[in-house]
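Session log. Operator J.P. requested a structure for one protein chain; no other inputs attached. Running the standard single-chain path with C-alpha cell output.
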Amino acid sequence: MKRNYFLYLTTFLCGAAIMGVEIASSRFMAPYFGSSMITWTIIIGVIMVAMSIGNLLGGHLADHHDPAKRLYQLILAAALWIAMIPLLGKYLVAAIAVGAVALFPGDAILVGSLCSWIALFATPCIILGATSPCMIKTATENLENNGRVAGEIYGLSTVGSIFGTFLPTFLTIPFLGTDKTFLLFAGILALLALAGAVRRKMPATNPAIMLLLVVLLASLPTLPAFAFWETPLCETESVYNYLLVKKNDAVTTLSTHVLLGTQSMYVPGPGLTGLYYDMALLAHFFLSPVQGSEKLPILVLGFATGTYAKLARQFFPESAIDGVEIDPEIVRLGRQYFALKDSDARVFVEDGRVFVNRTDNRYRIIFLDAFQDVTYPFHMATREFFVRLAGILDEDGVLAINVNLRSPFRPDLIDYLTGTLKCVFSEVVVCDHPDYYNRIIFAMNNPKMLDTFKSRTAVLPAEHPLFSLAEKAAAGLTLATPSQLILTDDLAPVELIGFKMLNEQVREAWHEIIARLIAAVKENLG
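Structure written below.
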C-alpha cells in the first residue's frame, strides 16, 4: 500500500503539539502554583486522563463519521483553544485561584492547580487525543495492514512527542516565551488543518481565518501579563524560571512567583534591606574577626542578583565572595536592574550542588539561599549534601541557610533540616526573623559558636546598623537537638513537607491582592 505521507506528517505534528502544550502548561502555571513535583503530578495526571477520554471519543468519531474530515476539524478546534490560552488563560487562572482560596483555604494550591489545568488544558488534550483513532481509520485500507499502520502512527506520534518535549524547553520558551510557544503550536495545527482541507478539497475558510488569527495574536506587542495587576519593570522567562522585576519607590525587587517571595532586592546607597538578607549577615559574628589584610572567603549558593553579596561587602569589606546561580537570566537581570558588578562577587552559573561537588575551594561562610521558584530544592536539603558542604567549610566556619516557609504545623521543614544538619554539625541554631516569615539556620562544628556570637555582638555600638537586629536575634536563638527527622538523597519529601506551609502563604498573598483590587475599584468609583 502506498503510504499517505501527509497523514504521517500530521501524526508527527499532533504528537509534538500534545507534548509542547504539556511542557508550556507547566511554565504557564508555575508563576501561580509553583513547579514542584506535586504540580507536575497534576499536569501528567490531567493530560493522561484527557488523552484517554480523547482516544475513546476519537474511536467513536472514526467509526461513525468520515475520519479524514473529522481529523482536520479536530485539529482546527485544538488550534483555536490553544491560541486562546495566552489571551484569556491568565485571567481564568487568577479567578480560579481566588475561588480556591475562598472555598478551600487549606488546599488552595492543590485545588486551584487541578481546576486550572482541567479548565485550560484538558480540552485541547482530549481533542488531540481523539485524532489518533481518526488517523488510523483514515490510513487503514484493509484488515491485513491495520496492525502495521497503527504501529507506524503510534510510533510517529511518539517521535513527535519527543520533538515537542525538547523544542519548548531549549528553544521556544527561553527565546520566545510561553505565550508565543502556545501560539507556535496553534499556528502549526491551523496550518495542518488548512493544508488538509485544501488536499481533500474541503472548505478552507475556517482554517485560513484561524491561521490569520494566530498570526495576529503573535504579532501583538504585548499579551496579558502573568501578574496583570502589576506594572513591573520587567516580566520575562528563562529556561528555569518566571522572572518578575518590580520597582516601588527606590526599591527594586526580583521574584520568581507572581505573589510570593523576594529573591533579590536593591536599594541605591548603603543600608539594610529589612529582609532576611540582613539576618544572614549575623553569620559573621559566629566567627573570630579576621586579622589585618586577611580575606574572608564566602560562598553564596543561590546568588540571584547579589543582594547578600552587596551587603556583605558593605558591612564586612574583607569579604571575598563566590556566588553560584543556576539561572543565567537572573544574573543578566542583576547587571541590568540591580547594579551587580564584577567586583561584588565571582559568579559561577551552574547548579549549586554540582559546584560544591567539584570545587576544591574552602570557605569560612557558606550561605545557602537556593529555591526552585518558591520551593526548597530537595537535593540541597539532604545529609549527603551537608556532608559535602562541611568538607569545603573551614573548621571554624559557619553554614547559614535561609528557609522561607514558616508554619504552625509540626514537624515542619525546619525540623527536618535541623535534624539532618545535626547528623553533620555539632552546633545548629535557628534564628527567627523578628519582622518577617523567614528563618535562618546557623550550623558549625565549633562548640563555642554562641559564646563568640554573644561576645562579638556585645561590643557593637548602639548606632551600628546591625546592633538592633543582633540584639533581637540573640534573644531568639534556639539550639536544635538531634532527631529522627533526617533527609537523605534517597528519601527527601521536601515538597510534601512544605506543602501546607506554602498553602498558608498563597492564601494570605491572594487575600492581599483581593484587598488591593477592591481598594483600587473603590478609589476609581469614588
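Operator note: The first helix runs from residue 5 to 33.
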